[in-house]
Design brief:
D-Maltodextrin-Binding Protein, domain 2, globular, 19 helices, seven-stranded mixed sheet
Length: about 450
């Protein structure tokens, strides 16, 4: 009888200490990109799961399906996904909809590892992780744009790297030789792809998406659509020229990030404003690319002014950040996974294996040596801008991108179409949300 009592006591102790506890499964729903995959690979190859008794699974999707999967989970309250990736302009929507929980409950717990917030690039953390002074998410990977060009193509044509948008257009026109080679490409798939691609044009021309958010224009009411100004319409028409004049592949209006990247890898395109996902490793990996050793990266072009000066480059920057679902059944374990995937501890391996930088510690000599574009990436940040992250932006962007995509595909009058889209966004989305500004 005493032996049975000892055995039962031992079993009780083991159960209390967790030795017999089943591993906790943490599921992530995030974007299918090189940064997320790199961080996950590092986690799975480490002792993290064994050490913490956590199994990490991931559902990696393209942008639109990812957002839809998130919303279905949030609406059901099931907490199927413990961690979700938030695109920078959607932070306000996720927070004000009460879909994600603040991280301060974890950062204030001394028994949990910290997030090394001082090492996070301030501009990215501020727009992709902090809402009204409170921390909700940590960048998982950054994105932005650099100007990339085939050095062999431009050298053969006797062209220097474009410094202005006008030079960019002229260079693309000179080397354009379809169907074997196109001067440039656009990632103009309907949706947020198109908004991200057009953003540097709007900002460089002195316009933007929503006044009082990503731009401050005199003479335009706060929280009104900003793209229907004369400068905004001029920027949209300039962008349209690339498509109308056949300087881009015919299917560029269907280019998401993967298709855009592939068009450069196969040698179909000479130059372009490159998404971060396409820069570096994807072009230098012989297993994926036919243009190894030919791609050069510089800051994006500036806008030539009437006085002969050129505006500073205004690239789009941002990040997909990782947040804890408010309905997660295991938020503490979810935080531990978030801390590892975004942590300073894997900085060197993460970058050298192709992850995109979001920490100051991601910039180091070996990174510059392996990926020369890292210098231009670092220099991008001071003059870069983020898209709006107010809660209404996703709905406004849907109106903008739907209208602009239609104008491109059907060769419609951009000015007429986009002014109507601005009026629709103002009346249906912005005015009800900000009545005091009307």
């Amino acid at each position: 009888m005493r032996q049975r009592y000892v055995v039962m006591s031992l079993l009780l102790v083991l159960a209390v200490t967790g030795a017999f506890a089943a591993p906790v499964k943490i599921t992530i729903c995030a974007l299918q990109d090189i940064s997320t995959q790199t961080a996950l690979d590092l986690l799975h190859k480490s002792d993290f799961e064994e050490k913490n008794n956590i199994i990490v699974e991931a559902n990696l999707l393209e942008f639109a399906p990812m957002v839809q999967a998130h919303k279905m989970d949030f609406m059901s309250g099931a907490g199927r996904y413990d961690l979700v990736a938030i695109d920078q302009p959607s932070l306000g929507l996720y927070v004000t909809s009460n879909w994600v929980r603040p991280l301060d409950e974890f950062t204030k717990d001394s028994s949990l590892p910290g997030l090394d917030e001082d090492d996070l690039i301030t501009a990215l953390l501020g727009m992709a992780g902090i809402w009204q002074g409170k921390l909700y998410a940590i960048p998982m990977g950054s994105y932005g744009c650099l100007f990339g060009y085939r050095s062999d193509v431009l050298k053969k044509a006797g062209i220097k790297a474009p410094k202005t948008f006008d030079e960019y257009y002229a260079a693309a026109k000179k080397v354009n030789n379809p169907p074997s080679l196109y001067g440039t490409a656009l990632f103009a798939h309907k949706g947020e792809y198109l908004a991200a691609d057009i953003a540097p044009y709007l900002w460089s021309w002195g316009s933007g998406f929503i006044n009082g958010s990503d731009v401050d224009l005199p003479g335009v009411a706060k929280f009104h659509a900003a793209w229907d100004t004369p400068e905004g319409i001029a920027a949209l028409k300039f962008y349209q020229r690339f498509y109308n004049e056949g300087l881009v592949p015919k299917d560029t209006l269907n280019y998401d990030h993967a298709r855009y990247t592939d068009s450069f890898q196969v040698g179909k395109v000479a130059m372009g404003i490159m998404i971060g996902e396409a820069v570096g490793e994807p072009m230098e990996n012989p297993a994926k690319s036919r243009v190894v050793g030919t791609m050069i990266y510089t800051p994006i072009p500036g806008k030539a002014r009437a006085d002969g000066t050129v505006s500073p480059p205004t690239p789009m920057i941002g990040a997909h950040s990782l947040a804890v679902n408010k309905d997660s059944k295991n938020p503490r374990a979810a935080y531990l996974v978030l801390q590892y995937l975004t942590g300073k501890g894997i900085s060197e391996a993460y970058i050298l294996q192709g992850g995109k930088p979001f920490r100051f510690s991601h910039f180091f000599p070996a990174a510059y040596k392996k990926f020369p574009h890292m210098e231009a990436t670092k220099n991008n940040i001071p003059t870069g801008k983020c898209r709006p992250n107010i809660p209404e932006y996703p709905a406004v962007s849907e109106i903008f991108t739907t209208a602009f995509h239609q104008a491109l595909s059907e060769n419609l009058d951009v000015g007429k179409v986009m002014k109507a889209a601005a009026q629709k966004a103002n009346q249906e989305i912005l005015k009800p949300s900000y009545p005091s500004y009307y």
